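User: I'm new to structure prediction. If I give you an amino acid sequence, what do you actually give back? Let's try with this one:
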Amino acid sequence: MKLKQIRNATMIITYANKKFLIDPMLGEKGIYPPFPGTHNQHLNNPIVELPVSIEEILDVDAVIVTHIHLDNFDPAAMEIIPKDMKIFAQDEANQMEEAGFNNVEVLKEEGSLLGDIKLIKTPAKHYSDDSIP
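Assistant: Good question. You get back a string of structure tokens that encode the predicted 3D arrangement of the chain. For your 133 residues, that looks like this:
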């Protein structure tokens, strides 16, 4: 397995000869307001330029969107990613289809397949530093 971090949650994972783009945040540096309650709440987001070209980022077999937040699937990604690219999503598939994507599959707890690779939905929950005892 090979992992290439692009930004925050955005990364490219290569596994079993397949490439996955995870949580694409593709907007220009500083285009979005700061995220309150974070270490960098004084900086607009994204806080860094893309380290590689959009062409390299989109040279993948599928996209995995863990959830729809600005730092996981931003308006730029919605515009840039081809509408027919394979996208695996959590339960927000209807929002992606409303945005024009036509190859969206909801990840299943029993697994979803891309070739020989089985992707398994894993429940998770966001917490803030205030909620940790």
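You can read the tokens as a compact description of the fold. Here is one thing that stands out. The longest strand covers residues 2-7.
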